[in-house]
Each structure stands twice: as C-alpha cells, then as structure tokens.
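Dear Dr. H.,

I hope your travels went smoothly. While you were away I took the liberty of generating a structure for the chain from your last submission, since the lab meeting agenda had it listed for discussion. I wanted you to have the full record in hand beforehand rather than looking at slides cold. The sequence, exactly as received, is reproduced here:
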Amino acid sequence: MDYIELTLIVEPKNPWTEIFMVELADAGYESFVDTENGLMAYAQVGLVDQNQPFENTSICAINPLVTIESHVKIIPQQNWNAVWEADFQPVEVEEYLTILAPFHDKTNRTGMLVEILPKMSFGTGHHQTTWMMSKALFELKEIPAQVLDMGTGTGVLAIIAEKLHAKKIVAVDIEDWSIENTRENSDRNNCTRIEAICGDVDILKGMNFGLILANINKNVLKAHMQAYYEMLDVKGTLVLSGFFTTDVDEISAFAENIGFTKYRNLQKDNWAAIELTKN
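The corresponding predicted structure, in token form, is as follows:
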C-alpha cells in the first residue's frame, strides 16, 4: 500500500500544530511526526483527500494571523523494516516489558522480552498508543482465554497476550503483509496460540472474546464499536487506542451509548487509551 506524506509548515507553530493534528486524525491520517516548523502526517492512499486545501482551513479563516503551507507527496510501498532498523532503540514499558529487535543485546533488559522485526507493518511499541496498549495488558486483573487483537500490525500485542497466558489469540489486519509479519514474529517469540487472519471486522462474525484490543484511528473504532460489543463476552474488556486525549469524551460517550462502561483511560503525551467493560 502506498502512503501519502503530508507536510504542514505552520506559523505560529503552537498551539495550532496540535489542533491541525486532531483535525487530520479525524480526516483519516493515522500517524504523525512533529517537526521544527509544524508536522508531517501519513495516511494510506485512497483513504483521505490528498487534495484538501489546508491553506484555506477554518482555523486560518477564524484567525488570520495563522498561516499554513502544505506539501503532499506519495511514498511508494517499501520495506519499512529498513527504515525502522536504521535508528530503532529498544522500547521499555515501565517495569513490565522490553520490546527489542533481534540485533539488540538482551542483557540487563526490564520485564518481559518481546522480539519484533517488522516488515512493512507498524507497531514496534515506539508509538505512544502501542506503549499504552501494552501497559494496559499488563495491568488487567486477568487475561481472558480468548483475545482479539484488531489491527494487529506486527503482532506485538497478540504476542504479549500469549506470553501473559491467553489460550487463543485472533490477530486481524487488513494488510496481508501485516499478517505475514505477525506470523513471523509469533514464531520468533515461540508463540503457538496466535491465529493471524487477513480481513476486517466482518470476518469475525460468530466469534466471541473475553478481551478485545483495538489500536486503530477514531473513525474506524466508532464504525466497529457495535461489532466489538456483539463479539465481547458479558463483563469482557475492550481496550481502545489510536486517538488523542481530546477525543476521550467523544469515544467514551459513543461506547457507553452502545452498552459499555468506561473503567479508566491512559494518557501518554497527547495520545490516549480507554479501557471499557461490556455491561
């Protein structure tokens, strides 16, 4: 899958860059990089309007002192591992977990060790959302027997769930290379109870889980919410991330209207995660 790389040069940078980031996330952009003069945002080609005139946004109309310059380019499908490996450092999730690559020294590491080598998929633990989802897994009162990892990426959350003694984990992603990568990383970590499936939420009809993990963008989470409710056992746990702290109230209210109760939320930088229970 090719990606759109959107570069925004914003003057003044603060607080407008963060506001633009929220708007871009709503529009379907899924990852962001803070830059000296603004930000860079990434989305799959075809999922966002790459011709949107950002210079004429409502923010600029409301505040004429804000100026923005945008540049768009297409990044062809590539081996993300080559990019990632160039500057990847081990990730520590408090005292619980260390996520590292095969070429890292494993001595003096903290907590559980998970070895990840991504191919063209995302989810090494570096992003705040993956970090929070990992932390939430360790802090659950118990790990249910049946777990769903929705939007699995590299399979890192599925691997953690198995190492925390889940009996069966279904790892789903819409990208076939993510499924291949999840299988490879599962083998790398001696996991035998992860079933990796390529597809979307509709392929899971009839399945039931005690825990659902979904680290996707806000719009997809809302579109899937009813399906999560139907698949989740009563009193089961739903852990969501992929959105900003400013979205917590909206997503919590949306989930509560379907039948969930919010237990808590986590925050790292401007990103958030929510842990909910099915009533």
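Two observations you may find useful: The chain has two domains: 3-75, 136-278. The first helix runs from residue 16 to 27.

With kind regards,
E. W.
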